[in-house]
Amino acid sequence: MFLPAVQGPASSGVSLLPYTPLYPHQAHGYQLALTRLQHNVPAQQWLAAADVALLQPQAVELPLRVTEELDRVSAAVGYRFSVPTGRRLMVTVGGKPADEVFVDLFRPTELRQERVAGRLPRSAEPAFHIDAVEGGDYILRVQPTLGAAGVYDIAVETAPLLAFPVKGVDERAIWSAFGAERDGGRREHRGVDIFAPRGTPVLAATDGFITRVETTRRGGNVIWMQPLFGNMRVYYAHLDEQWVTPGDFVVEGEPLGAIGNTGNARTTPPHLHFGVYVRRPGVRGGARDPAEFLR
Fold first, then answer.
1. Tell me, what DSSP letter sits at residue 85?
2. C-alpha gyration radius of the chain
3. Do 126 and 268 share a domain, yes or no?
């Protein structure tokens, strides 16, 4: 919890340190500190359990499916796990009383555990998700409110962040991988090539906005797309036809154009060059292996 030290009541002449809770679990703990901590052992145990679950979580592998029985006072459980690049992380906590349990997801940093998502008590939705563009380590903490006991089913799973961008084929159609040499070793392949017959529709890999539709010397007929999450861009090249215009909003699976071999692919069979770029402050380029986002 890392709550500030709580002084005596205002009538004692000692002011409370200024503090603003940032999320529901923190607000619950702060209320306990204000009203019950100094004279209430269960409240002290609840706060201590919250810190232990966050600072000493169990190391687990995904997917995770467990059932936990959490008691009325001191029980809290924490899990630490790694999420690969380009995955959607989905967390589901069910059980009774489901409306009295805090579910919080944290991203460990050098200085602290930063809360990135969570589920509100009394929420109608038992699940939430985040888009882990960069991947990394996460900690999930589950803790009932003080006085609420229950048995909880906890599931943590991942799925590809992007849908496959060519209709009627799958990963087996990727014949040229990320990082392969090009132009006699003078450059590297900054995407993957997905081969399919000319005219096969290429599809929106996620929901987002079309930002550029143009023809270039290297890419031929190209489309740039901005997903709704993260600092990402998605790139489609060598198209035979383009069926969208800049500013269009598209949903996952919507046709954007047709496979071809325009640009510097004129001597190759028809295919889609598919690229994923992740922006970082002060770093140019940002090309990532699209296969990580499609697996």
1. T
2. 25
3. no
Q: What is the pLDDT of residues 121-143, one digit of tens each?
A: 766 677 899 999 989 999 999 99
146: tokens are 């003080």
| Cβ atoms of residues 89 and 130 within 8 Å | yes
> Parallel, antiparallel, or unpaired for β 58-59 and 77-83?
parallel
* Single-letter code of the amino acid located at 126: P
Q: Name the residue among 256, 252, 247, 255 with its Cα closest to residue 223.
A: 256
Joined together, the tokens standing for residue 202 give: 């290429």
Q: With 60 as the cut, is the pLDDT of residue 155 above it? A: yes
Question: For residue 76, what are the domain limits?
Answer: 10-160
Inter-axis angle of helices 24-35 and 41-55, nearest 10:
150
Burial of 202 (0-12, 13-18, 19+ CB in 10 A): buried
Q: Please give the DSSP secondary-structure letter assigned to residue 11.
A: G
Task: Report pTM.
Answer: 0.81
Beta carbons of 273 and 238 less than 8 angstroms apart:
yes
48 is written with which tokens?
Answer: 């201590």
Q: Are 107 and 175 in contact (CB under 8 A)?
A: no
pLDDT tens track for 36-54: 555 677 888 888 999 999 9
Examine residue 31 and state whether it is found in any structural domain, yes or no: yes
Answer yes or no: do 187 and 147 share one domain. Answer: no
Alpha-carbon gap, residue 76 to 68, rounded angstroms: 9
